[in-house]
Amino acid sequence: MFEGAREEIVPKATEASGFEEKLKAERESLLAAWIAFLELQRAKKVPFPPQYADAFYAATKVKKKDNYILNLLIEGKGLFNSLLEKLDPHLAGRIGIAEEINKIANYIRRIEELEQELSFLKESFLRDKLTFLWNKNALEKFFYEVVIANIFEEDYLLCYFDLDKFKSINDKYGHKWGDRALIAFAEVLRRNLKPKDFPCRLHGDEFCAVIVGVTLDKFTSFAEELYEKGFAMKFPDGVHQIKFSIGLTNIIASDNLEKALERADFSMYWCKENGSLKPIRV
Asked: What start-end ranges are recorded for coiled-coil regions in this protein (predicted)?
């Protein structure tokens, strides 16, 4: 070798073999996580979307539950990205792991696609598509994971809403205008409830809300004001006032969601059938 010439660095076979073993172990770990995650998804135990997680847990001081499977996938993606950034493609070709590197890049793309798919699935699983309020799936999670978990530390009420004469809106103006009325009422709830309250569309023109941190005595007068005002909406033949019935009930420690909804629903129908009465509580 001439003086001053640089000796070419060639990795030893044992080093390449060790690196391949590490890649194989990481790949097997990722596949195991993938399979476990798919089982979780089939069971409908999907995590909350990041863009809604803060709002969902605003009503509680309970520590957010980590989704270990999803975190594992994200950590794996970070590890693989780090490996790809540090590895020289020419070196990978020389030591015979170019194919494995391509597989890692494909795994990263699959994880990114999965994250996008999950974001869509979580949103559709928890949100009403018309009004973008929470749906009953979200209400059920909130009821058991937040309300019942903190029932001895916080006051919770269940408020049930039903639009009056909603069928006549659909019959007279068409379902498009009925949908607009539902969207308008959802906005009424957003404007009038606290950020930590939990408004939800159950089905049709029936809505409910978990009211957080207030007693029934104090909230009843506010519910009566909402009941008296209703809300105005512009129709093809002019502006009309839309009224809605309200039912109220305390949520207690022995409740399940169906019991609480049944009481609030009974209260709401009493209000609807006796229009001269203000909202009552049961």
From this structure: 97-124
Write out the residue range of the structural domain in which residue 87 sits: 13-126
Taking Cα atoms as reference points, which of 108, 89, 109 lies closest to residue 99?
A: 89
The set of residues, in sequence order, having a beta carbon less than 8 Å from that of 206 and lying 6+ positions away, is 160, 161, 162
Q: Are 194 and 212 in contact (CB under 8 A)?
A: yes
Taking CA atoms, 219 is separated from 214, 222, 235, 241, 254, in Å, by 7, 5, 32, 23, 22
Tell me, yes or no, whether 208 lies in a domain: yes
Q: Which of 126, 146, 179 represents a domain boundary (last residue)?
A: 126
Q: How far apart are CA 84 and CA 82, in angstroms?
A: 5
Q: What percent of the chain has pLDDT over 90?
A: 42
Length of the chain: 282
Tokens of 17: 């073999």
Q: In Å, what is the CA distance from 244 to each residue of 89, 159, 185, 271?
A: 67, 12, 9, 9
Residues 159, 270 share a domain: yes
Mean pLDDT check: name the lowest of 69-78, 107-116, 123-132: 69-78
Q: What are phi and psi of 15, to 5 degrees?
A: -65, -45
Q: Tell me, what CATH number does 210's domain have?
A: 3.30.70.270
User: CB atoms < 10 A from the CB of 127, how many?
Assistant: 18
β-pair type (238-242, 231-235): antiparallel
